[in-house]
Amino acid sequence: MSARPEVRSRSRARLRLSVAGLAASAALAALVQPVQATGTPKPPPSPAHKDLRKQLNDLVRTAGGPPGVIVTMRQGDRTKVYRAGVADTRTGRPPQPTDHMRIASVAKAYSGAVALRLVDRRKLALGDTIGERLPSLPVAWHGVTLRQLLNHTSGLPDFSKAPAFVAILQQDPRHHFDSRRLLDFVADEDLLFPPGSTYEYSNSDNIAVALMAEAATGRPYERLLDQLVYRPLGTGRTSLPQGYRLPEPYLHGYDVTPPAPPEDISEVIGASGVWASGGIVSTPKDLNTFVRAWAGGRDFLSKETRHEQRTFIPGAASEPAGPGVNAGGLAIFRYKTRCGTVFGHTGNFPGYTQFAAGTADGKRSLTFSITTQTSKTVKPDLLAKVRAVQENFVCALLHD
Questions:
Q1: Can you tell me whether residue 354 is helix, strand or coil?
Q2: So what's the pLDDT on residue 400?
Q3: Do the Cβ atoms of 299 and 361 come closer than 8 Å?
Q4: Full-model pTM
Q5: Other C-beta atoms within 10 Å of 233: how many?
Q6: Whole-angstrom Cα distance, residue 11 to residue 392?
Q7: What's the maximum distance between 2 C-alpha atoms anywhere in the chain?
Q8: pLDDT of 378-393, one tens digit each?
Q9: Which of 124, 201, 217, 318 is most buried (CB neighbours < 10 A)?
């Protein structure tokens, strides 16, 4: 289904969301100050299932809140689905675990998965540098390592903040970028800081990760995703499109700005301008399968590589921040909640906010998807509510 005809005429909302979405996902993830109990009290009992559903309904009813929300929770072989609102305000259809959706910056976990599985195959090493693998990139960047790209300590300037990139996006949000040339927008810039010295979340990092994977194997990144992630996990509904269309059926994403009715912006922006940093389309079911493997599946990474993946930088948060206290590893984040710890990634994109996480043993996992964008700069009050509900679902995941 194509985007609604009136979308192009409503340029003000469209451009505000498109630029805000990319800038928010690229901005510095400052130290998060979550609500966290002091001391080490016994974890409270997990919320009742009825209460969890009520919390999702409350999110949907919140002014500026999402028209729809869906949570998938896997505990061993059991799968539970919680949902509220609708997948499409036009038809009233409820969200489904097999609906396609933009997973935003959770796509960074996929580029991390490709890279670390290549590390296990000795095609890449965490100490490999841009100079060794991508010598055509600026000499000033040549000392940056794959490890620093994966944990966002590279210092690479963010292409999605470049004035030329933003101007193109404002002129035509569906512009077809050459995804492999996105770093050209900042090729005349030096590093923002010495590599390894500072944490700064950046879209450029995962573009470089994908390019290094291509250079190491001679295969397109899209094929590497298929060979190393989709097929081994059986996630055949996941893809990395170049255009703006979404496969049917899909979870529609909305700009919700009361008192105006929700505006469907699912297909306003093309995916080529985010590519390996945020362009993947998946389903709640597929995403849950992926994050279970990425967080702790025994056969997905070697013990040695898993150890490197889980070397965390305290206070380093994904964008938007996830529940509890955040810390950043190699394309994965640790979320310490009042009930326990999970590992995963978050993301936000015009029309969508995502959280996917699993336990260290890979036996429990959840996805939490809402159909409007929120971050520390876009609807921060809504984000605070969402994070609180996410933490309650983590408690249910860990203690039921």
A1: strand
A2: 76
A3: no
A4: 0.90
A5: 18
A6: 37
A7: 57
A8: 999 999 999 999 999 9
A9: 318
The two structure tokens encoding residue 297: 């599946």
SS3 for 10? coil
Q: Which two tokens stand for residue 136?
A: 């055509």
Separation of alpha carbons 28 and 384, rounded Å = 18
DSSP 46-67: PPPHHHHHHHHHHHHHSTT--S
Strands (E), the chain: 68-75, 78-85, 101-102, 254-255, 263-264, 281-282, 313-314, 325-328, 333-337, 340-349, 352-358, 364-370
Tell me: the pLDDT tens digits for 107-124? 999 999 999 999 999 999
Angle 205-209-212 from CA coordinates, rounded to 5°: 135
Q: What is the CA radius of gyration of the chain?
A: 20
Q: Is the pLDDT of residue 24 over 60?
A: no
CA distances from 398 to 43, 76, 138, 357, 393 (A): 10, 11, 46, 11, 9
What is the per-residue pLDDT across 27-38, written as a single tens digit (0 to 9) for each?
323 222 233 333
Q: What separation, in Å, do the N-terminal and C-terminal C-alpha atoms of the chain show? A: 40
Dihedral sign for Cα 336, 337, 341, 343, please: negative
Q: Dihedral angle at the C-alpha atoms of 51, 56, 61, 65, nearest 10 degrees?
A: 150
